[in-house]
Design goal:
Trp Operon Repressor, Chain A, 2 domains, binds S-adenosylmethionine, Alpha/beta knot, 6 helices, elongated, 231 residues, alpha/beta
Length: 231
Amino acid sequence: MRIDILTIFPEIFTPLDVSIVKRAKEKGLVEIKIWNLRDFTKDKHKKVDDEPYGGGRGMVLKCQPIFDGVERIKKENKEGKVILTSPQGIIFNQQLAKKLSKEKGLIIICGHYEGVDERVLSICDYEISIGDYILTGGELPAMVITDCIVRLIPGVLPEDAPVYESFERYLLDWPCYTRPANFKGMEVPKILLSGDHEKIKKWRIQKAIERTKEKRPDLYRKFLKMGVKDG
Ligand SMILES: C[S@@+](CC[C@H](N)C(=O)[O-])C[C@H]1O[C@@H](n2cnc3c(N)ncnc32)[C@H](O)[C@@H]1O
């Protein structure tokens, strides 16, 4: 997969240079390219924003550098689906991440200031929000979306890893523990030390169901609707 990110803060993307995303890039499973929106401006001051029509506070990212940037990126990422990060978009979740991980390419536009000129939406396939709150810019959402999608690309994680993670099958993950078996009097459940893998699997699924019911009744209802009771 190829992911391109268009931003006025290209230097901020260092979290995509570590851990799983870094290894995915090294293995050639994903190519990530960060583009500076200012490189697509046409004036000597590299101005990407202007005042809003109708007055009011804040600045708005202009159409021209974004349209030209996306057009240039599409020369390299021909089939890239264009995503505008926006608090007004559909809420990003694991299901959407899965769908997007099957695309050949993505082009993510990071907004800033008061947002982007509304006409930018005409070149976007998706308008995506990472939650009902306002961030300063689209850079953190772009990283959230990229990180989440990259770990779903086949070959990035071990074969079975994402299957049992939270939100798969509308269940939260089960509780996990590591050494020591007793920490400050808090014991690891005996079953996990038993070596009986069949019983451990059943226990884990039971715990996943219980904690989903307790912590996320909304998800639990979806899980029940699916009619799946076992791993
Ligand atoms: C300060 S916000 C603009 C908010 C806009 N005035 C509004 O009220 O809808 C600037 C940029 O940050 C990004 N952004 C902020 N919050 C976001 C969120 N929850 N999800 C995705 N992008 C977000 C978008 O790219 C947005 O254009």
